Fold this sequence. Notes:
The protein has a single domain, classed as Hemolysin E, Chain: A, CATH 1.20.1170.10. It is built from 9 helices and 3 strands, in the order H-H-H-H-H-E-E-H-H-H-H-E. It has helices at residues 2-18, 39-68, 81-130, 135-188, 197-220, 261-266, 268-294, 296-345, 351-380, and strands at 229-242, 245-259, 383-385. The radius of gyration is 26 Å and the shape is elongated. Residues 1-29 have low confidence and may be disordered.
Amino acid sequence: MKKALVAGLLVTAVSTSCFSPVNTFAESNTTYLQPSSILGPAMDRLSNSITKLGSQTPLIQGYGLIILQQPDLNVNTIYGITTDQGTARNQVRDWLDVYNPKLFKVNQDIQSFGIRFTNYYNTLVELAGKMNEDPQAKASFVRIFNLLQGDVQTIQYNIKINSEYLNNFKDDLVEDSNKFSIKVIRAFESYKSSNGDIEKLRTEMGQLNVGIQEDFEKLLALPKENLDGSLNITKSVINILKDGVKDKTVDVSNLEAIYNQYGQLKNDKVTELNKAIAQKQQQLIQLVQNLSNIEVQATQMTLIEQQLNNFTRTVKNQTQSFDNLVSSWDTFNNIMIQMGTSLNADTKIDSNSLQVRLKELKQFTDELKKQTTEYQESVTKIKVTG
């Protein structure tokens, strides 16, 4: 709570000190007359950030559920490794139960603002056309615009606080993930007799996991009309034979994208990426089989470690996407503040230029509505099961 209060004071200080009202503006220098060269790039960054946040959500849920379903690791020679596994599970629960809903709420707030701006847009355009002749029209325009700008600033305040929370969580997760990996590496020191085969297989498995994750991100970023189905957690059972008889088994959990036939036929990219994922997963299972033939416990530790790495990478990507959203929203908020300052200070308004700027803002909010809807569909249309 103390961090949130400090963050709020910082946001308020920046907003009031950097954009203090100016007493007068020469008509040719008013903010709404200046080229909006920064609005377009900000819109692109914001759009891309929301798209990535949405496409990464099912993936992070899938990786998280795999971790929650992991068997308990029991390595007597490495003190605390089971406790570390429990810590990882708790962090997954925190993300799924606390932080994921925060992201969904931010998306809803941005979506609601886009709808509200659209509802006021025609009225603002009409008022802008007659505000020089009608003082009441200008007063009404300024009142509505200030309400909208207040909404933008409220969202800015909330997303900056959430960014701090997400980054703190990410930093803790990365630290704990690294601690777990260090203990796994220590455990592998007792397997030196494998002539480096274990480490070679572990490295190849890690590379395949990264490739699978990248393919999933590409797949889930496709337009959602092509992706109507589920992200399933599948289990493959690997049998470990001793003298020709099954001695032990190793369960391998994977994510498998399953989409309906309509989606596959409409977009060949869906089919292509699904096949690429399936091929890499088969290669991964073969590597797990090879590693299991050398040492079962090393295989179990490797699977658990790399599943945690998958989750951690996705959280890092999600946090970076959210930080990009915060930066882009700052730009949008600054433009709104500067416009409001000019409108409150100028005695005569260039109505045509103001209407042009309103049209640009409308294009921005239209894109917001489109991308926030895509995010919502990523969360609601693509089910994670397993």
